[in-house]
Write a structure and sequence with these properties.
mainly beta, homodimer, Jelly Rolls, about 0% helix, 5-stranded antiparallel sheet
Chain lengths: ~150, ~150
Amino acid sequence: MGLIEGVQITPVKIIENPSGNIMHALKQHESSFAGFGEAYFSTVQCDSVKGWKKHREMVLNIVVPVGCIQFVLFDGRTGSKSYMQMQELQLSPGNYQRLTVPPGVWMAFKGRSKGLNMLLNIGSIPHDPAEADNLPLKNDLINYQPFLI
Amino acid sequence: MGLIEGVQITPVKIIENPSGNIMHALKQHESSFAGFGEAYFSTVQCDSVKGWKKHREMVLNIVVPVGCIQFVLFDGRTGSKSYMQMQELQLSPGNYQRLTVPPGVWMAFKGRSKGLNMLLNIGSIPHDPAEADNLPLKNDLINYQPFLI
């Protein structure tokens, strides 16, 4: 499991408050910000997997404010130094970091806690099915056993 | 409780999926989008109140993907048709709408469910304490009894 070129993992602040915490997500001036196209939540049941999906244009900026989600990334960019490499990480409020995924990188994610598992993605362009590719979980390109069990 | 000038309440889609739902928040081309300055979560304990706060520049775009939050707005803009009027609403995944609050409108909000109550705000400018005014819950300008009980 290497580090995929262009993937960024950035610590994000949680400001504690007795009435309820503030959890940062993304600011305009941060280096991983790549434009605002759309913000949406995706939830994933415990042990369910969503993916594989690859965007051709969208940069993803993801935080997990609720639950725990395991992400696996696979570099499908032929010109990249990390071509064919994989990277795995688990995000939650307890490991509150932002995952920035450049175009051309395949991603799948799995719910890891029994309650609600929820991510926020701030995509650099609005949702457009024409700029995304999908592969079934079991395929000939990406062999990642933990997701198939 | 009237409708405050410039406040928008926009239904937002939830796309149901057995692996986990997708919940829209905000798109670039929607009329209530006013620029991307910063996205952050604010959580509020059951029966706790955050507010009053008024922004001088920031437009707020708020959704509540988890729990239930009661919002009260008060129009403090002397030139507004709804000057001194109040507006109240309760948002949750079951009443999944986006609340757009223009500058100059005071807001307070209260957690209404016993679990996690969480809002996402997509602010039109980054957080800047110099452009926000605060008032204690009990004050001479805004008299809203339910928040004081």
